[in-house]
Amino acid sequence: MSSLPVPAVEVPQEGRTPTARPGAAERLPLSVVILARNEERRIGRCLASVQWAAELIVVDGMSQDRTKEICERFGAQVISHAFEGSFAQERNLGMERARHEWVLQLDADDVVTPAFRDAVSRLLAAPQPHDAFKFRRKSYLLGRFMRYGGWHHYLPNLVRRERVRYEGLVHERPVLQGTIGQLDADVEHHPCESLAGFLDRHNRYTSLGAMELVARTGPLSERELRARLLGKPRKTFWKTYIKKQGFREGLHGLVFSLFFAGVELIKWAKVWEHSLAGAQAPQRAAAPSARPARPQGRETLSVVLMTKNEEARLAACLDHVGGWADEIVIIDDLSTDRTVEIARGYTDQVFSFASEDNHDRQWNRGIERATGEWILHIDADEVVTPPLRDAIDRRLADAAGYDAFEMMRKNVFLGRAMRQGGWYHRHLVLFRRQRARCVGRGIHVRLHVDGRIGFLDAEIEHHPFSSITQFIGRQNHYTTVEVQGLRAERGVLPIRAIVYQLSVRPAKLFWKSYRKNQGRREGLHGLVFGLLYAFVHIMLWAKYWELTGATPAGHAHASPTPNAS
Fold first, then answer.
1. pLDDT higher for 177 or 540?
2. Cα-flanking dihedrals φ and ψ of residue 203, to 5°?
3. CATH superfamily to which 301-465 belongs
4. pLDDT tens digits along 460-475
5. Are 9 and 22 in contact (CB under 8 A)?
6. Which residue ranges does the chain devote to CATH 3.90.550.10?
7. Contact present, 154 and 136 (Cβ < 8 Å)
8. Dihedral sign of CA atoms 193, 560, 62, 209 in order
9. Which residues, 6+ apart, have CB-to-CB distance to 355 below 8 Å?
10. What predicted TM-score, i.e. pTM, was given to this entire model?
11. What is the pLDDT of residue 20?
């Protein structure tokens, strides 16, 4: 079979002007549709690998970076379209604008190889009986081609424009009446430059996947949800690591399998979250009808907060302490919303500093700027309830012999106060200004008190997460920060220690939360909480492995092909 001539195209380095595209007569009669959003780091490589195609169309989800500019430099037609929750809709939109009979559907993290280009050239040179062709996607995890584990798979994404339409939200699929042929060539897929990026992407995808499942399955009973929360992640891990031999990829295969099991967990946790909509659940304490008053006889008290983009919660938090505290000091981490504006409605003691993820330093900045004898340090997602205010007033009226007080922190998880499972714990946030300083350098604050610490028989309410999506996003960020400290503290550990932390330790943490600390008494809230926090441990240690580059002999990192055309 003869093939059309296909000139080679140089892949430019980032930031450089791309080389000129081949002339119109030299290009293959093919439309390429690429989905993208905020892909300035990767879209250039993808477009460079398909410069031989007659038409390049990028369906851009209203990017806020240089994606559109880069696409236009490569000669692509850009369709700016706000994402409406369906990748199938995006692919169909691209095909509606396409002019050629055959359309190749790609993502911005795909790279077309020379072998694939040649295979397409041969296909287009002769009549074809099929309406679509499947080809293999050669996926990479942190630079390693994942031959095993199920990630080297087929996609039917070379399609006839008039004969195929896509359906589905996340894992969109072509719907056609004809047959599907097979193209014996690979497209390279580089989906995540980091594990943090992997989690960020799948945090979005699982929200869409959960919506699809809810629409398909309808309401599920507690028993059905429990079975899926426990069974689906386990089945996913077994399928990728054992059945599809992910174990042959070494630690890459273990991390890959654990993360995809975690993705399955997150998806079903979000399905459960949908079932909570409209359910009766404890709500955040209502703002007082009038600002509370400062009592007589109490030592002076400064309330100190750290904030960052808290416009949605800050006012409700400050309503419970404004007028009661002698002063409010706010250390803001360069918020880009209305946080500072709202804060100034309660106090003129508002200071802006970049935290650089060092919360101990931010706390100390607040301590240094406060003037009260005592400091109560709270976050915008915490509520100082009337019973807590009364308890503090009584203790600070006669606190002789004490320099700090612990209290109980009542954490509320998706509307439920978690008194079991290990999340109802002591919290040290009330202390004499002159007798305490923070001594750490990370996310979780370590307060050192030079003196005697007592116990305050009261609770502070904590509402840290409004959704599973927010929980995963926050823990993704926290573990990225924490792993730096872990690396400095532990150095480079042997492989067996990392495997233990990735496999055995999460199981122990779940058992401790769900069984030993009786999280099971919290129902599905306790089950989801225990499972998610076990996965957070996996996040942390997988990022430790990523950061340290710890790789057993025989499993060195493979480098992706730098020039794909």
1. 540
2. -65, -40
3. Spore Coat Polysaccharide Biosynthesis Protein SpsA; Chain A (3.90.550.10)
4. 999 999 899 999 999 9
5. yes
6. 28-189, 301-465
7. yes
8. negative
9. 306, 308, 333, 361, 362
10. 0.88
11. 67
The b/e string for 294-314 (b: 16+ C-beta within 10 A; e otherwise) is eeeebebbbbbbbbbbbbebb
Q: Provide φ and ψ at 156, rounded to 5°.
A: -90, 65
Give pLDDT, residue 565. 32
Amino acid at 427: H
Rounded Cα distance, 233 and 503, in Å:
14
Q: Is the pLDDT assigned to residue 9 strictly greater than 50?
A: no
Q: How far is Cα of residue 134 from the mean position of the Cα atoms in its chain?
A: 30
Instruction: Residue 194: count other Cβ atoms within 10 Å of its Cβ.
Output: 13
Query: How confident is the model over 443-460, as a mean pLDDT?
Result: 93
Q: How many CA atoms lie within 13 A of 100 on its CB side?
A: 19
Nearest-angstrom CA–CA distance, 45 and 398: 68
Reported as a pLDDT band with limits 50, 70 and 90, residue 11 is very low
Q: Alpha-carbon distance 294 to 298, whole Å?
A: 8
Question: Which tokens sit at 118?
Answer: 């040649």
Give the Å distances, CA to CA, from 254 to 2, 47, 126, 245, 275.
Answer: 44, 32, 44, 10, 32
* Count of beta carbons in the 10 Å neighbourhood of residue 368: 12
**CATH number at 28-189:** 3.90.550.10
Q: Is the pLDDT of residue 562 over 80?
A: no
| Residues 330, 284, 319: CA angle, nearest 5 degrees | 40
Residue 357 has pLDDT above 80, yes or no: yes
Question: Residue 353 class from Cβ within 10 Å (0-12 exposed, 13-18 middle, 19+ buried)?
Answer: middle
Instruction: Quickly list H helices, 37-139.
Output: 43-48, 67-73, 87-97, 114-124
Taking only the tens place, the pLDDT of each residue in 196-228 is 999 999 999 999 999 999 988 889 999 999 999
